[in-house]
Model the fold of this input.
Amino acid sequence: MQGKRIGATAHPVTEVLDDAPIIKQSMERISHRDALEVLMPTECHIGEAVRSRAERWHIESRILLYKNMTVIFER
Done:
């Protein structure tokens, strides 16, 4: 049986919600037994890490969007 997961996704903003290619995505396994006090900081940490990485790649011009795909160039 697979566990529950929470996560975050970064993608360009478009007129259609969640319609752009994914730039960065991360998730962690959680348990249905986890308390809200555990889940909220975990979700915030994942979101901050994903957003930070995507923003850095954008600033460094390392992201190429092509059709519905994303290419991230290594430094």
